[in-house]
Amino acid sequence: LQDLDEQELKGKTTEFKDRIHEALSDIESDIEEINSQLASTGVNPGGDGVPKKELTLDDRMALYEELDALEEEWHKVLQTTLDQMLPEVFAVAKEACKRLVGTTWVAGGTEIEWNMVPFDVQLIGGVVLHKGRIAEMKTGEGKTLVAVAPVYLNALAGRGVHLVTVNPYLAQRDSEWMGPVFEYLGLTV
Fold first, then answer.
1. Which of 17, 19, 33, 22 is nearest to 67 (CA)?
2. pTM of this structure
3. What is the tens place of the pLDDT at every residue in 38-65?
C-alpha cells in the first residue's frame, strides 16, 4: 500500500464497496423482489381503480418469513465478506493515518497536528471491536484511534455506523479529531 499514490489509496474505498456489493447483490435482488411482491397488493396507485393481485394472509406471512431469512443471510454474508477484507481494510486505514501525519485541523476548538498511526496492538483492539466484543483500555492508550479501522470497515457496507462515547463533548471532539481520516478515505462523518 505504501507504493500506491494518493488517488489509488483513496480508490480502495470504492474497490472495497464494490466487493461488498458484489457479494450481496444476489441477496439484495431477492429482497427487492419480495418487497415488490408485498407492495403489489391493494389498489393500483395509477388511479385507474384496477385492483392489484391480492395476497392471502398465508402468502404474506410466507413472504415475510422468506424476507427474514434473506436478511439473516445478508448479515452473514456481509460479516464473512468484512472478515475476509479486514486485513486489507485495516492496512488502508493505517496507511491513511500515516499519510495525514503533519496535517493540521481543528478538533474540540483547538488546532491539532495529526501525528497518530495505529500500533499493532491498537489494530488488534480494532479487530476485537469489529467482532462485537469489548476491548478494555486505560486512559491514554488510544481508544479513539483504535475505533478508526473497524468503523471504516463497517461503514463500507453503506448502512452507517454509530460510535458511542460517554458525553457530548467527546462525541463532538472525537468526530472532529478522527473525521478527517474518514473523509480522506471518502466517507462522511
1. 33
2. 0.87
3. 988 654 555 565 556 788 999 999 999 9
